Amino acid sequence: MDSFEGINEFVAVAEAHGFSAAAKQLGCSTSHVSRQVTRLEERVGTQLLARSTRMVNLTEAGHHYYQQCKELIMALKQANEQLTSQQTQLSGILRVSAAGAFAENHVAPALMTFAKDHPNLTIEMSFNTRMVNFIEDGFDFAIRYGQLNDSGLIARKLIERPMAAVACQHYLDQFGTPTHPEHLKHHSCIIANNDLWVFDKDQKPLSGVKVYGRWRSNNANAVVQACKEGLGVAYMPKSTFVEELKTGELVPVLEPYWGKGSSSWIVYQNRRFLPQRAKLAIEFLLNYFANWQE
Questions:
Q1: What does the pLDDT look like over 141-178, one tens digit per residue?
Q2: Closest by CA position to 153, among listed 137, 136, 134
């Protein structure tokens, strides 16, 4: 068991970029942390940390060792949580990366409900579009939409998200209503993630239509607002436009050709090292959206 000494201190220093900050986090003295890390380096026979007067950084060897040690600590925490899960409530910090209007308008409120059920749990939800490094960035799982790259991550389907094409009545009165996807080549289109729009006919995909327009944004709310302002036709998951379709601010177009769209996913690294709070949150979201209707 001596070989495990210093690992907790080493991981804390790597994440805090300093011995003092790590000691404060662990609730011990700086000298204790320094001594434990030095002994660990002596045992493994290599320098794990590059020390300077301002900051402590990982060496190349230390970077690889840190990733393995982090998984060991996560696995140990999970084992402890599983033993005590029947007697204690969830605690600690659940960190979630998310992107898109669906995550903002639906997943976030669902996780708020989950938080109410677990008053000792803190949830941090970060909205960004980049693919995260779960170990280095410290996220438990991510919510992503669309086609996923084969990254070796675990992905569980949350919902299917069929598409809808919409416009405001003012735009249609001025420029006419398209009755076939090919007609969009002569319309101003509001472009979100891509400018090649795929429609279906009788549940079979048609050739993609290359569209052009005066407004482009990767933010769904900005796309909706531009559509309401009459800047053109928008084509995104139907759930993006639910309220505007109900109120009549936007009207459907090309409805017989709407595509089946893509899915929203819960993505995470490895189910073996997933903390109990993340496991239960994932299962909660899967059950919460099990009967989701656009």
A1: 989 887 766 567 788 889 888 899 999 999 999 999 99
A2: 134
Work out the number of other CB atoms within 10 angstroms of the CB of residue 268: 21
Q: Taking Cα atoms as reference points, which of 243, 292, 239, 237 lies closest to residue 260?
A: 237
28-66 tens-digit pLDDT? 899 999 999 999 999 889 999 988 777 888 999 999 999
Distances (CA, A) of 173 to 170, 180, 217, 257: 5, 17, 24, 21
Closest of 160, 161, 147, 163 to residue 259, by C-alpha: 163
Q: Work out the burial of residue 250: count CB atoms within 10 Å of its CB; fewer than 13 is exposed, 13-18 middle, 19 or more buried.
A: buried
DSSP codes of every residue in 220-245: HHHHHHHHHTTS-EEEEEGGGGHHHH
Tokens at residue 32, please? 């204790």
CA distance 291 to 289: 6
CA distance 248 to 169: 9
Place of tokens 């008053």: 119
Among 99, 64, 80, 101, residue whose Cα is nearest residue 236: 101
Residue among 49, 60, 57, 66 at smallest CA distance from 11: 66
**Residue whose entry in the numeric block shows the structure tokens 């992107």:** 99
The domains of the chain, with CATH numbers, are 2-84 (1.10.10.10), 92-161+263-288 (3.40.190.10), 163-260 (3.40.190.290)
- Greatest Cα pair distance, the chain, in angstroms, is 77
- Over residues 220-227, the mean pLDDT reads 94
Separation of first and last alpha carbons in the chain: 54
Task: Round to whole Å and give the CA distance between 87 and 226.
Answer: 52
pTM: 0.59
